[in-house]
Amino acid sequence: xxxxxxxxxxxxxxxxxVIHGQFSRNRKEMAIDFEFLIKEKHDRDFRQPIGENHPQxxxxxxxxxxxxxxxxxxxxxISRKQLREATNAxxxxxxxxxxxxxxxxFEEKTKYLKGMRSTALSRxxxxxx
Length: 129
Fold this sequence. Notes:
alpha+beta; 4 strands; 28% strand
């Protein structure tokens, strides 16, 4: 099961959360995993927030899976509220009575996640454009 949710995060950027769910053998438990993508104004398609030309690419490649996903989340500009909203939509789509197991525990690690910061000028420009 897959759910894609897109959010406008400011500064002419759209961030997409892709949630993948895989049922266990007994169909009462589902393992979910996240993927974070962004699309700038000039981009044609969504892409990973940290690419080969990004200054933090070395940190991403030297990190294990959970830490690299947190880096992608941090640089996507998604807030904790938006992450929770997408997760709740996924759980509602999956239905009641299912126990969810996260591949990477995001709740505690995203405690201080604020999302993309934008200045008053960039908000005004985004409203006009």
